[in-house]
Design a protein that fits this description.
The protein has a single domain (about 1-115), classed as Jelly Rolls, CATH 2.60.120.10. Helix content is about 30%, strand content about 30%. It has five helices and eight strands, in the order αααββββββαββα. The protein has a four-stranded antiparallel beta sheet. The radius of gyration is 14 Å and the shape is globular. InterPro entries: cNMP-bd_CS, cNMP-bd_dom, cNMP-bd_dom_sf, RmlC-like_jellyroll. It holds the Pfam family cNMP_binding. This is Cyclic nucleotide-binding domain-containing protein.
Length: about 120
């Protein structure tokens, strides 16, 4: 729905995300024009460790939990927290499994668009 996308775009810009600091206005415009909105329920797996990364994710609301086989356990629950960039930039498999720990709304940028930023 276009209305929801416009509201989330406004929220993203209002968050003053550090990832926007180094972006030119054209890159920010691309970011806000290509994102998808994904929602997840508690326990839903967003990213599975070892799989190829397909998206860059920004948390709009809710919470996600990061767990890896190497013992990393982190909870992200702040608007604007993001993940997925390392596997896209390095073309490496995802280093952790990330699942919603509460209802979560994420802005997702497809990998091919993220690389253009």
């Amino acid at each position: 729905d276009e209305y929801i996308k416009e509201r989330i775009t406004a929220q993203l810009l209002a968050m003053n995300l550090t990832l926007f600091d180094a972006m030119r206005p054209a890159a920010i415009a691309l970011f806000t024009s290509v994102f998808e909105i994904h929602t997840y329920g508690p326990g839903d797996v967003i990213v599975k460790e070892g799989q190829a990364g397909d998206f860059f994710y920004v948390l709009v609301n809710g919470a996600v939990k990061i767990d890896s086989e190497t013992g990393i356990h982190v909870e992200l629950n702040t608007k604007g927290d993001y993940f997925g960039e390392m596997s896209l930039l390095r073309s490496d498999p995802c280093a952790a499994t990330i699942a919603a720990s509460a209802d979560a709304t994420l802005v997702c940028i497809p990998g091919e668009n993220f690389k253009q930023l």
